[in-house]
Design brief:
- The chain is an alpha+beta fold and 212 residues long.
- The protein folds into two domains: 6-50; 63-211, Beta Barrel (Porin), CATH 2.40.160.
- The chain has two helices and eight strands; from the N terminus they run H-H-E-E-E-E-E-E-E-E.
- The protein has helices at residues 6-14, 23-50; strands at 63-73, 77-89, 94-108, 114-131, 134-146, 159-174, 179-188, 203-211.
- An eight-stranded antiparallel beta barrel has the order 1-2-3-4-5-6-7-8.
- Helix 1 (6-14) runs antiparallel to helix 2 (23-50).
- The relative contact order is 0.12.
């Protein structure tokens, strides 16, 4: 609502100008009209300043998705890994999430026998940002590991359940908008004779993601 008075006063006083012939009197009326108009504009500005300022609410980015894609290659063969993640920010500092992992490996042993192996599993992790972009992380993973036949006793199942407990930390770096990148160094506290087929301490992970 705006307050406008100056226009009404001008119309009201203009009716008397036809009866006024003295120039000094006319100037006095004009000066009075200008002063009243300025006063009204000042009141209007003050009224507008009293109106509450509307604040833009910034919606927090609770969910985030991302993951990593990696691989390794040598003269004996290579491997390919994909691990998407979905996470949720319980607080701005404390995040939880899950990771799905799939690893394909293909290589030859010293006798020329080729092995094509498929490993898959899932994990749950907790991450705490304790200083700016630095975080500590704990993660438990259950991985169905396919072991080469020569690495197990004759007649034994070549697929093993590999349990791993990773602890460590890293940094997260914003990448503009809602994107981010992470690099983490983790150590497996539950190493077994089969762990080296997929992990070797320390484990370095580089990932990317986006929050929404």
């Amino acid at each position: 609502m705006q307050i406008r008075y100056s226009g009404i006063i001008i119309v009201f006083l203009s009716a008397y100008f036809e009866e006024i012939t003295d120039m000094k009197t006319i100037l006095k009326y004009l000066m009075a009209i200008v002063l009243v108009g300025l006063a009204c504009q000042t009141l209007n500005a003050q009224y507008m300043n009293l109106a509450p300022t509307q604040k833009v609410e910034v919606k927090p980015q609770r969910w985030f998705v991302g993951g990593m894609i990696g691989g390794s290659f040598s003269s004996y063969g290579g491997s390919f890994e994909i691990a998407p993640i979905v996470g949720y920010k319980i607080t701005p500092e404390f995040h939880v999430g899950t990771r799905i992992t799939y690893i394909y490996s293909s290589y030859k042993d010293y006798g020329g026998q080729r092995y094509n192996l498929h490993d898959y599993g899932a994990s749950l992790f907790g991450r705490y940002l304790f200083y700016k972009f630095a975080f500590a992380q704990v993660e438990y993973e259950a991985l169905s590991l396919e072991v080469p036949a020569y690495a197990v006793p004759v007649g034994e199942n070549t697929r093993k359940l590999l349990n791993s407990l990773f602890v460590g930390g890293g940094i997260v770096q914003p990448m503009g908008g809602r994107g981010f990148a992470t690099i983490a160094v983790l150590f497996n506290l539950l190493e077994t004779e089969y762990s080296n087929y997929v992990y070797s301490n320390p484990i370095i992970r580089i990932g990317f993601g986006v929050g929404f």
